[in-house]
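Protein Entry — a single chain follows
Fields — amino acid sequence, structure tokens
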Amino acid sequence: MPQISGIAEVALYVNDIEIATRFYEEVLGLIKTAQFGDSSFLQTGVNSTLILFQKDTLASRKSIIPAHGAEGPGHVALSIPSEEIDVWRDHLLKMNIEIEHEQDWSQGTHSIYFRDPDQNSVELIEARHYPAVWAKIHQSESETDT
């Protein structure tokens, strides 16, 4: 059986994005790597991200990614070695797990989405995805600083 190499991201749903972000930065010492209108991305370790989403904007949010939110199904992304994408896809199909969506990311990485028995959104994402995201963010920051 193929192996999970770690958790790539975890999403939490909050009532006030500013208060929640400040809590995770100030109380837990997490570093905010990106901020969008209704979400904050915080680094939780090497190759690991916590995403905070503003609850009241989820219903109107447009995205190609399968829905996940605060009321009902949650979401977890598990990082896997790039060379195991096909092995995982084959394994899921062999286990009669329906693949809901596959996504090619601009970082050159790939994700496979499916649901657990409780309809939570489960994502298998290449382990090299977030290091590429962080490198791009840090490169943009250093270019801005000069």
Notes: DSSP finds three helices and eight strands in the chain. The radius of gyration is 16 Å. The mean pLDDT is 83.
